[in-house]
Amino acid sequence: MSTPDTTFRPEQPPPITVPGEIPVRNNNEDDIARRKTIEENAPTESHTLAQIEYNEKGLVQKASDTDGITDVGWGLAPEDIEEPLIGGLSNEELWMLIRRFNKQMYYVKAAPHPPLDNLDLNVVENKEFSPDRLRSDIERFYMTVIVGLTSFWKHIARLRSWREPRRTAVFCMVYFLAWILDLIVPTFLTTLIVLIVHPPSRELLFPPAPIALVSSETGGVQRPRAGVLGSHDSITGAPERHQGEAAEQEASNLVASVASVAVGSAAGKHDQGVPENAPIEGSIPDPMEITSTTADAQAAAHGKVPSPQHDKSKQPMREAVWTQTRRAMHVISDVTDMYERFGNALSPTPPFPEDRPRLRLASVLVLALWASLLTSAYVFVKTSAFLAGLCFFGDPIIRYIGGLLNHHFPHWQKLLELRNSLLKDIPTNAQLTITLLRIGEASGAPLPPPPSSALHRAPSRPASLRKEDLPLDASNREIEQAVKPDPHQTDTAKHDVQEPKNKSKISSLIHFLKGTTATGVETKLAVDRVKAVAGSRHAKNNIGILHRKGRIVSPSGPVEFEARYRGKKGAMVLDSSTEPATLYFTKDLEQVTELQEHQMKDGNDKEHKHSINIMFSIPVTSIQELKKVGGMGWKGKLIVGWSEAHKEVVDGLVITIGKEDDPTRQQQKSYHVTAMKARDELFNRLVAMGGQVWESY
To answer: Do 527 and 551 fall into the same domain?
Structure first.
């Protein structure tokens, strides 16, 4: 048994622990004083909100009154969880947030200091580029920004179409009355203030309707592109088993359709992190080179010599494209984060406060409203023209003032960022999700994983829709014809495309190649088993990375998670009975179940822990990095996905402990745990348990 030296710990705030009496949010002076004490000890607003008790409680928050760890639905079907897990938030919304969090976050590091916006899990500026990260950012941009802007545009189309004559007439009358009185800008700002401060006004002025049901051209009713209205918040209206899955599938298909750079993204290049000496990787050509090779062949056909020795522009242009793509990735990520912050400011999600962000936004608009009332159109035009000329011709003055500010206030540019000023304490969806995960940990009831629909096809039936609540000016017959399944649309699940008979030989050849490839994969992994017995460390990490699809994994949380370490089959165990909490790996699976029962009952498993063989043990507060890595590299996954119809690659997790400020990394130690089907669940528990302030890489 080898135990790491835990004396080297990062200098960071103390771990967040659940106090005996949790303060209630009210106006009592004692409770306010206790909340102030928590805020002083907590490194971020997210850590603070995780410890405050709310009047509206869900199953997770009610578990804070019991000892030990409470199972609030791990392994249960969604319909078996009757109450909301978090008070004020539906389970479908919670699972959607966690599901998208799992796709977005896979590499975090502990930061030495709290961030300026008082919320952790911010994306670092020097975030590494890979096509897989670009894929994740594009998908998030689509689900957040594109879907939101599409919904907004369809509201505009409905107003312009006069198909809702009363509402359009009111907007038209108010607009031209403001035009006559020369109050266009004050009227616009007043409307925004009302929409921000008084949420019920949003449905009154802009009554919602399913996005896919509204035509962006006519503003009337249309048949959804998917052939059936199976979801309300997706552009195609595709069916979904759980909220948000249709938009996620649309985003994934969008990326798969992008050319060139997205070829690697759709294939999953640099998927999470490629393990060292990943099997099959070195013997497979790079699909990213297909486009470049095709262009070279076309040039050679015309008598040219497409080689780096003759064409000195090839490599510089390729580097320029990748550099600009990296910048585009950062822009996409920043725009999406800003959009999510504004959305969470206008419609806050518990446990974040409801009124404070709206009042902050409204106060800025009130100042703009007063300025618009006191400023004539002539003064506004003259001032705008002067500022435009100053920006164009005043570069020396601007540089001089910028140099003075950089000298006296080095971080002035950071302070002016919206996330550190107007949108301070307002989270992105990822920051909201980690706060919800921390609530589960502080209450002793870790949030269960979201239900998966990977192996189940969404039913092709219309989603629930009350026609009397639709604001669209259409008859019931028109709406019924639009939302019901299209009888003329081909159902690919029932009517597979039949291949011509002359292609049967090709199909047989492809089937033979698949079988041969699958045999080659199995042979490669069998060789790795032999190497592992001989002592090869890299070969040990390849054992058990192929699982049969749909296989039930046990144990799978919330305390124990089946895994392998150096090829040894066992489980990762989170022991909350110690201070601080401890994460360790053991091979004694027979005693793991008994240990979990004791920890779930009273949180005390010290006696049982002594009888278990532990390969390594890590204090949760000493974790410095968490990185999800693939069981295989991206090319190996392509081969397995093509040839192994009934198997899937199971990924791993790299856990690093030690001092963050050690440049030589001699005082840091990493543990690579492999073959974890419940890897995301363990990752989420670890990032939510300690008092670390995380940064996303």
So the answer is: no
